[in-house]
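Practice problem: predict the structure.
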Amino acid sequence: MRKWYPCCILLVLYVIHISTGPLYESMMVAVEQKLSGLVIVIDAGHGGRDNGASVESVWEDGINLAVAKELQEILEMAGAVVVMTRESDVDLASEDALNRKREDLARRVEIIEEDDVALFISVHMNKYGDSGVSGAQVFYRTNDDTSKALAQSIQERFKELGSNKLVKIGNFYLLNESTTPGVLVECGFLSHPKERELLQQKEYQVKLAYTIYQGIVDHVTQQYGALIAT
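Answer:
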């Protein structure tokens, strides 16, 4: 993994145009370039023939991609070099793949494991049998203190969106088969009626992305604080 030397330079304004029917509002977000040169992989979970979780015809994969793209834009404004595992409704498996799901995940891991990647964020939506369960939750791989610290930084920020959940070790292929520091973020529950509604709204998707961004900055500041200050 490439050693990254952070450089804090500009303060820029990230302008997000949010459609609210016929009206538009602009949310001005101050994005400080504390991530200059940092290579981050954003994985929008599922896609293509794999739609992920669904409730009442609301599918996970499209929401994953929407949040991932918002996160990409914010991170790039903060100076990061962002690599997306997918940028449209596709999976990464070849047409003649015998096991599409496994090949898709294996190719995502290949992207994550590139030498210059500092960390990765895999974006997902959750689903549960109890429709009363809600809130974002961040998962990390076992025996990985750096990924756990990243997860905790993001989870702490999710408190601002009302989540009271704790970080958790996740038994997911993407986490188990990679060594690059990273987390899988379940942004909310499609099975919770109110949260399902929110997750489909662009304004809330922007909030989710910005919250994840804040957690990343908190983590990077803690890890490289002395370098950032110089």
